[in-house]
UniProtKB/TrEMBL annotation:
Organism: Camelina sativa
Similarity comment: Belongs to the small GTPase superfamily. Rab family.
Name of this chain's protein: Ras-related protein RABA5d
Length: 179
């Protein structure tokens, strides 16, 4: 995170990480938010580490540098470099796969271990378009978020539901905490 005002306008840079089990839709949430793209056959992306999105808050230029894993989570090998300096996190599960919801506690632990500062955290139940095969209720998601002190939102990277809102809530919360 940085702030400088040598040209009159302030600038902020926030690092945000997206974590959660493999195939919950992390990469598609990011591509939906940053490029308005969805990929039905997405493979673990290799190479691209993060995408930057600009947002104007109170006339301030806020840049969110949003990091996506390159699929390391399949091997439980997300490194500390991935978390380093993060001030925001989206912890994602898939509402149609209960095991991904049960993994959330482990991801929160991992985040806690690797972060040296307050992190704005949002629990994200993705794939809410898959209502017919839902395996985790909205109430369960909300309850877990409340217990752990996280924001909560159900999203769909497929049909765009709440994707922008989820990222922007985290970015605004970080901004509020530092400004
Ligand atoms: P990651 O491993 O967490 O990065 O997950 P991906 O973004 O690669 O997505 C895994 C699979 O889930 C892909 O086949 C996506 O097309 C699919 N997917 C991602 N988001 C959604 C969503 O919101 N709804 C539905 N129905 N499928 C999704
Ligand atoms: Mg991915």
């Amino acid at each position: 995170m940085s702030s400088d005002d040598d040209e009159g306008g302030e600038e902020y840079l926030f690092k945000i990480v997206i974590i959660g089990d493999s195939a919950v839709g992390k990469s598609n949430l990011l591509s939906r938010y940053a490029r308005n793209e969805f990929n039905a056959h997405s493979k673990a992306t290799i190479g691209v580490e993060f995408q930057t999105q600009n947002m104007d808050i109170d006339g301030k230029d806020v840049k969110a540098q949003i990091w996506d894993t390159a699929g390391q989570e399949r091997f439980r090998a997300v490194t500390s470099a991935y978390y380093r300096g993060a001030v925001g996190a989206l912890v994602v599960y898939d509402i149609s796969r209960r095991s991904t919801f049960e993994s959330v506690a482990r991801w929160l632990d991992e985040l806690k271990i690797h972060s040296d500062t307050t992190v704005a955290r949002m629990l994200v139940g993705n794939k809410c378009d898959l209502e017919s095969i839902r395996a985790v209720s909205v109430e369960e998601g909300k309850a877990l978020a409340e217990t752990e002190g996280l924001f909560f939102m159900e999203t769909s990277a497929l049909d765009s539901t709440n994707v922008k809102t989820a990222f922007e809530m985290v970015i605004r919360d970080i901004y509020t905490n530092v400004s």
